[in-house]
Specification:
Helix content is 30%, strand content 27%. With 486 residues, it is of the alpha/beta class. It folds into 2 domains: 9-230, 3-Layer(aba) Sandwich (Rossmann fold); 248-485, P-loop containing nucleotide triphosphate hydrolases (Rossmann fold), CATH 3.40.50. The strands form 5 sheets. The chain has a 9-stranded mixed beta sheet, with helices on both faces. The chain has a 9-stranded mixed beta sheet with strand order 16-15-17-18-14-19-20-21-22, sandwiched between helices. Strand 23 and strand 24 form a beta hairpin. Helix 10 (280-293) packs parallel to helix 11. The chain is elongated, with a radius of gyration of 29 Å. The N and C termini lie far apart (96 Å).
Length: 486
């Protein structure tokens, strides 16, 4: 056989799944959708079926000892993918409960064969296939083995040119011993974990013959429209570098561009670190407003309450003008991949050039507990992807002012950013003042001065350096020796 066989890929209609699979489900493949109870297996199977079924590609959905078809349809019709017109016209439901209860594999196989030969479907679903094996447990020795059934079923359905999905509840320990895992061309594994009030669902493409699928666990949600998957971004060996001589972006605060050496280079990531109330969100708002002024739309993921109504009004006005998108961060079981997905959608929709994440502290709290363990690694990946898209990222980080050390982030995030601005409180003459400094701008000269600044109704106003004081970072500066002598 010298000719190369072309495999046609079916688009699944499940957001994010085609990307995981490497383009789609291979036509005429024999697949298993497996996982723990309640992880979304039946919902995924139905979403696939309603998306792929048509008058030219009919589907047969066999139910075994799980939910009867009527009950299953009652719950599945709540999803947006459900189309009642497909039922009977393109989709047929068949109950195998009687055959499975007898534990006779020959009867089960014969019924499937009869239905497939009668309707010539292009799609076949068996839910739950695990029930067939369990019903046969007490009848061993009287019927063919599970391995024989699976092999016969796979051979017949493939010869009939049907794309098949077996659905069942399995454990990872069974992947080495159960024959269905060996025979299947594709294996989609679904899991769910519950921690207090947080539920996280993940999907893994454990096998897909002939396909370059994306490895690893990927978060998904079950919502009104069905399942939406948020593929985990895999970085290349080298993150996209910002070219030398990149144009500079204005920060929207008089004097701050000069401190940065002429503005923030386009495509950079900037960390603004400081204690509560030091002006981080106001600085971020000015950054977005300046972008809108010069025709550079922005996106903000706001995990903090906006401290001032004026800031909220500015952001609301930008949204109304179509210059800003605000990511909904109300859910408390987010994943970084889900957040990155939402950011990417809005960036593409607006053609955004600026992104703000306010703040990293609030971001971590909004994540499901299982994702907090790898927050630092995931944050690195997210920043690399965003800057690789050509946007400039500003992140805020809330820090307790200890005055004994100069920290920038409790997550070790300082190393992954291209620039850092630190905000601090100081006490001068029994009065609380604020100072700021540019700690680094990668590949660029910048100011090394500590500059006093005020927060006014007009925003941040940067003042002069304070040469008459030394020890500003201690929080309790003292007058310099030269100033005291004068």
């Amino acid at each position: 056989m010298n000719e190369k066989v072309t495999i046609h890929l079916l688009k699944t209609g499940v957001p994010g799944l085609d990307e995981l699979l490497g383009g789609g489900i291979p036509e005429f493949s024999f697949n298993l959708i497996a996982g723990s109870p309640g992880s979304g297996k039946t919902t995924l199977a139905h979403q696939l079926m309603f998306s792929l079924a048509s008058p030219d590609r009919r589907a047969v959905y066999f139910t075994v000892l799980g939910e009867p078809p009527l009950k299953m349809l009652r719950y599945q019709q709540q999803f947006g993918f459900f189309d009642l017109e497909h039922v009977d016209a393109s989709i047929r439901f068949v109950n195998l409960a009687d055959e499975a209860m007898r534990g006779d594999f020959d009867d089960v196989l014969a019924r499937i064969v009869a239905e497939v030969e009668a309707t010539s479907p292009g799609l076949v679903f068996v839910d739950s296939f695990r029930s067939v094996d369990e019903a046969q447990a007490g009848q061993r020795g009287k019927t063919p083995s599970l391995q024989q059934l699976v092999q016969k079923l796979a051979m017949l359905l493939t010869s009939w040119q049907a794309t098949t999905f077996l659905v069942g509840e399995y454990s990872l320990a069974e992947t080495d011993s159960n024959p269905v895992f060996t025979v299947a061309d594709g294996l989609l594994w679904l899991t769910q974990s519950v921690h207090r009030n947080s539920m996280v669902r993940k999907i893994q493409i454990m096998k897909m013959r002939g396909q370059a699928q994306i490895p690893g666990l990927h978060t998904f949600r079950i919502g009104a429209e069905g399942i939406r998957i948020f593929p985990r971004v895999i970085l290349g060996d080298e993150p996209t570098a910002t070219p030398a001589g990149a144009p500079r972006l204005g920060m929207g605060i008089p004097g701050l561009d000069e401190m940065l050496g002429g503005g923030l280079p386009s495509g950079y990531s900037l960390l603004v670190a400081g204690p509560a109330g030091s002006g981080k969100t106001i600085l971020a708002t000015a950054f977005l407003a300046e972008g809108a002024r010069v025709g550079e739309p922005g996106v903000i993921a706001a995990f903090e309450k906006r401290p001032r109504r004026s800031d909220s009004r500015i952001l609301d006005d930008l949204v109304g003008a179509g210059q800003l998108a605000i990511i909904d961060t109300r859910a408390l079981d987010l994943s970084i991949d889900e957040t990155l997905h939402e950011l990417s959608v809005q960036i593409e929709r607006l053609g955004a050039k600026r992104v703000v994440i306010d703040s990293l502290s609030g971001f971590e709290l909004a994540l499901a507990p299982t994702f907090r363990e790898e927050f630092r690694e995931s944050l690195y990946r997210m920043v690399a992807v965003l800057t690789g898209m050509g946007v400039t990222v500003l992140m805020t980080s809330e820090l307790e002012d200890r005055y004994t050390d100069l920290r920038f982030s409790p997550y070790g995030a300082a190393f992954l950013t291209d620039a850092i601005i630190v905000l601090r409180y100081i006490e001068v003459a029994s009065r609380l003042d604020r100072v700021m400094a540019v700690v680094k701008v990668r590949g660029s000269a910048h100011s090394d001065e500590l500059r006093r600044f005020d927060i006014t109704d007009e925003g941040v106003v940067i003042g002069a350096v304070m040469p008459q004081f030394e020890g500003l970072l201690s929080g309790q500066p003292r007058r310099s020796a030269s100033d005291a002598c004068s």
